[in-house]
Amino acid sequence: MNEVGLRERTRLAVRADISKTAMDMFLAQGFDATTVDEIAERVGVSRRSLFRYFTSKEEMAAADIAVRGNEMLAALKERPTDESPWDSLYAAAFSSDGRGPMSSKDRTLQVAQLLRQTPALQRFRLEKQKRWQDLLAPEIALRIHGDGRDIAARGIVATALSCLDASVDIWVESGGEGDVLDVFRTMIAAVRG
């Protein structure tokens, strides 16, 4: 077996465990009330070891955002390239295989509330938007023909992600009532004209 591949998989698994444990603690006792030392103790590693995986508590809270972007890209790559860019993005954002943002409604609501209500985490939401655009736009460009397709792809992705964020905002504001998919679908339909 490839040792580097195994090492990286182990690192990713430990990172995911730390992130999940940290998020569980943030949800239970609040982001500001949770210390890095408490997270390290709960995970069973030293503070120094913890910082080999994450540079900050904020990064631990936002780790799932980065993972979700990669999952969306993987779902997008599975879509046919002759499919509409909008339809491909919708399907990738709300994949039915459990990778979508609503795979666990209660936890998703709690995490979304935490990310939106914690000032220290606002920057990560903005950075996510940029990272996801950079990640998804090249794949969307494959679905567009003609001059300016890279620019068009970036615009489509930025618009779709803004609609996704706004849909989740509305869903969070309602306390998780209704269907975020319907809100997103309505927004995309309005944008598309």
Automatic annotation (TrEMBL):
Highest taxon above the source species: Bacteria
DNA-binding region: 35-54
SUPFAM superfamilies assigned: Homeodomain-like
Domain HTH tetR-type: 12-72
The entry's keywords: DNA-binding, Transcription, Transcription regulation
PROSITE patterns attached to this UniProt entry: HTH_TETR_1, HTH_TETR_2
Pfam annotation, one family: TetR_N
GO molecular function, one term: transcription cis-regulatory region binding
Name of the protein this chain belongs to: TetR family transcriptional regulator
Organism lineage string: Bacteria, Bacillati, Actinomycetota, Actinomycetes, Micrococcales
